[in-house]
Write a structure and sequence with these properties.
Radius of gyration: 23 Å
Bound molecules: NADP nicotinamide-adenine-dinucleotide phosphate
Low-confidence stretches: none
Order of helices and strands: HEEHEHEHEHHEHEHEEHHEEEHEHEEE
Largest sheet: 9 strands, mixed
Shape: elongated
Mean pLDDT: 96
Structural class: alpha/beta
């Protein structure tokens, strides 16, 4: 199953919004075929592995990281291929959360006399496909919050300048993550302060993937259509979420943004800004399953306050800013106490160039 999970991971950035899936055919203790789902719309892992095994699949065991599908989607049902190949036993890591499958694939196999086991390395399989599970089960994309800060925990100087806190090596790592995300989200404050391009430039983009969309949270509609990212729609799409009131008040700016090629989207408001859950739901409806939240301080504060962050990715630079009015990373509501602090799990620390990258899980996904 570990081999199947390793194979599955090769589909990262290529199969979404499908899950990554790997499969290994084993006969008499030997691997006789293996495969993975390599691109959206392409053959499923089971079919690739069974094809590779050929006649050796008869009477063999199939290890697969996700329950085989039993419905006609873009390809015929995998259960059919498993039965046709004469597999004796199927070991699946986890059942498919997709409503059209949901245990029915395994049931179909059992009915046909195949021995079925489920749950081997289930936690690892769920984690690998966290974005898929979260979107199918909650209608929200997986949210990865990423920031770079100084050793004294500051996101930017009091002037608002934050270029560059992290090193070139750290920025390359960020671009690798952007390359497998469907969107990069920033607040209007960051757009105004940095005019960031938010595209993938320092890492290769999987050949089947477009640039991630740039999502701007701008309830007052202050984004300048003449500056990046709004002025560079040819590089990657720009979605500007704003409030109904701002759309009325700033109709001319909304038109200018549309003329620049941005999509301006009216969104509900909540306390302190846009209704972030509604924005995420809209992104998921557009097929997005993994998004990178890149700040700034108030936007991070609002996402953490609403418990909408799943993963954290923090670059700590070996610099002490040393200024009392420098901006801290997460400016949520005042007055919170340690008792209510969000506890992260599975923390890791990895040196990246001169920086340390700290990562962890902030939700069950
Ligand atoms: N070091 C890093 O990794 C990093 C990364 C990003 C940014 N930064 C720095 O962070 C600073 C910008 O941070 P910031 O706090 O000023 O701005 P911000 O968080 O980027 O944006 C805040 C804006 O987002 C809008 N917004 C929409 N919905 C919101 C909601 N639900 N909650 C909160 N805001 C919402 C608000 O508009 P309204 O005000 O109209 O309500 C607000 O103006 C800059 O100095 C930038 O350089 C550093």
């Amino acid at each position: 199953m570990q081999r199947a999970l390793d194979l599955a991971a090769r589909g990262l950035g290529r199969v979404e919004p499908n899950p990554m899936v790997g499969a290994v055919v084993v006969r008499g203790g030997e691997v006789v075929g293996e495969g993975f789902h390599a691109r959206f719309g392409g053959p499923h892992a089971e079919v690739v592995a069974l094809d590779a095994a050929g006649d050796a699949a008869r009477g063999a065991d199939l290890y697969v990281t996700l329950e085989p599908c039993c419905h006609h989607g873009k390809t015929p049902p995998c259960t059919q291929a498993v039965l046709h190949a004469g597999i004796r036993r199927v070991v699946a890591a986890v059942t498919d959360p997709f409503p059209e499958v949901g245990g029915r694939g395994l049931a179909r196999l059992r009915e046909a006399g195949v021995a079925v086991e489920v749950g081997l390395m289930e936690a690892e399989a769920r984690r690998l496909n966290a974005a898929f599970f979260k979107r199918v089960l909650t209608g929200l994309p997986l949210v990865i919050a990423k920031w770079a800060m100084t050793l004294d925990g500051r996101l930017a100087a009091g002037s608002g300048r934050s270029r560059w806190i992290s090193s070139e090596a750290g920025r390359r790592r960020v671009h690798e993550v952007r390359a497998v995300c469907d969107a990069v989200i920033v607040g209007a404050g960051t757009v105004a302060a940095d005019a960031p391009s938010l595209t993938v430039r320092l890492a290769p983009l999987p050949e089947v993937r477009p640039q991630p969309a740039r999502v701007l949270l701008d309830d007052a509609l202050v984004t300048d259509p003449a500056r990046p990212p709004a002025s560079t729609v040819a590089d990657a799409p720009v979605l500007v979420y704003t409030s109904p009131a701002a759309l009325e008040r700033e109709a001319a700016r909304a038109d200018a943004l549309r003329r620049a090629g941005c999509e301006v989207i009216e969104s509900a408001e909540a306390e302190g800004g846009l209704d972030l859950r509604a924005v995420l739901q809209d992104l998921a409806r557009r097929g997005m399953s993994r998004v990178l939240l890149e700040g700034g301080s108030r936007v991070f504060g609002a996402f953490f306050a609403a418990r909408l962050v799943d993963r954290v990715m923090v670059f700590v630079a070996p610099k002490v800013l040393g200024s009392a009015n420098a901006i801290s990373p997460v400016a949520g509501p005042a007055g919170l106490e340690l008792e209510t602090a969000l506890a992260l799990e599975d923390m890791t620390a990895t040196p990246i160039g001169p920086d340390v990258l700290i990562e962890g899980r902030a939700s069950d996904y």
